[in-house]
Amino acid sequence: MNRFFVPFAAIMSSGIFAYSYWKEWLAIRWWGEQAVIFPENEQAPYFHASEAIYLQVLLAFALVFSLIFFASIIYTFKRNWKAVFFCFMFSMLAIFAVMVNGAIK
Question: Rounded to two decimals, what is the model's pTM?
Fold first, then answer.
């Protein structure tokens, strides 16, 4: 069970977040979409102050989740289950970092 669930969870959790952050960053940076930021709202996170900061935060999290995603795939093919488990843990810690980052006003 662990040899299916942990790799699946590590790949999917980091892959979904990497996809969503890359999609948002590319849409704003290269495809001309408007960033949805609320600089005047006091309840919005700090990175909604400007589009430049918003893009930096998106890119940083996209890179982090992509690194974890590719490491999870490589270690799954190598059948290094401890490393896959650590990738899953790093993915959960990165998701926690996203939540903490969003709570900073």
Answer: 0.87
